[in-house]
Amino acid sequence: MRRRLYFTVDADRDANIPIPGSVAAGSIDRGSGTAPRFSSSERGMAVLADLLDDIGIRGTFFVEGRTAEMTDCSVLSGLCIGLHGYDHEDLLGRETGIVPDVEDVLRKGFEAVSDRLSAPTCFRAPYMSADDRVLDVVRSLGIRDDSSFYTEVGGPSEAYGIGGVTEHPVPKARDRNGRVIAAYLWPMHEGRRAPEDYISMAEGMDELVLATHTWHMVETREGGVMDDAWVSGNSDRVRQVLEGILDLGFEACAIGR
Ligand SMILES: [Zn+2]
After folding, report:
1. Number of domain units in the chain
2. Which of 29, 82, 103, 153 could be disulfide-bonded to 62 (CB atoms 3.0-4.6 Å)?
């Protein structure tokens, strides 16, 4: 059996945060409020498109409708395009205390992403917050592949069927020190994980969904916008992860087609 690596990216607003009482998400307040920003997301798209082109693999980008409208996302055309809400909605209202009209926001997102790129063929819920009802709406859009759930330590990293879609879970595992590591590259961008951690995570798996954010290529949650040296070091570390896992005999695959 071929080992499969899915490199997935959430193309969403910069350093996004749920805003209590608001359906639409914001960006971390860097001194001028929480209104959503998109400049790091747009820069990060270009960094990632270059990197993937250089390595010679396709990624899967879960694009938020508003981000598609607010950025020049044309660098993503030709890559596998998925959906990530319209305004980065917390679809279950766990963080915001307000449940949006899921059908309304996902249709709006689907149309925005279709207009700017191509019809999304897969879905990831913002904040990995989804349930069967959300998956019903996803299916009604003609989407049959989803990646909205984590697998806890010891659970499957392979795709499985749920709610009429194929689920590609984002796994968690234990690192060499017994600490839980999730397949989101987030802590590496923030300086708390090394590429080797993700490569060794892949060693025990036949299928691995890795995940990151566009904006996380050029901005950290904790430190703000990166300087140029950090941006290039960050990009190098993502390359090391991808090449290190491909060297283990994984084949790079896209979710949704
Ligand atoms: Zn997101």
Report:
1. 1
2. 82
pLDDT, one tens digit per residue, over 74-125 is 999 999 999 999 999 999 999 999 999 999 999 999 999 999 999 999 999 9
Order of strands across the sheet that contains 170-174 = 150-151, 170-174, 180-182
**CA 178, chain centre distance (Å):** 25
What is the CATH classification number for the domain harbouring 229? 3.20.20.370
CA dihedral sign, ordered 38, 39, 41, 46: positive
- Is residue 257 predicted with pLDDT exceeding 80? no
Determine the distance separating the centroid of ligand 1 and the alpha carbon of 81, expressed in angstroms. 14
How remote is the CA of residue 147 from the centroid of ligand 1, in Å? 12
Q: How far is it, in rounded angstroms, from Cα 6 to Cα 248? A: 14
How far, in Å, CA of 62 to CA of 65, rounded?
10
Centroid of ligand 1 to alpha carbon of 198 (angstroms)? 21
Does residue 111 form part of some domain?
yes
Q: If you measure from the C-alpha of residue 115 to the centroid of ligand 1, how many angstroms do you get, rounded to a whole number?
A: 20
Beta strands in 56-213 (DSSP E): 60-63, 80-83, 122-123, 145-146, 150-151, 160-162, 165-167, 170-174, 180-182, 207-213
Does some domain include residue 28?
no
Handedness of CA 217, 17, 135, 101 (dihedral sign): negative
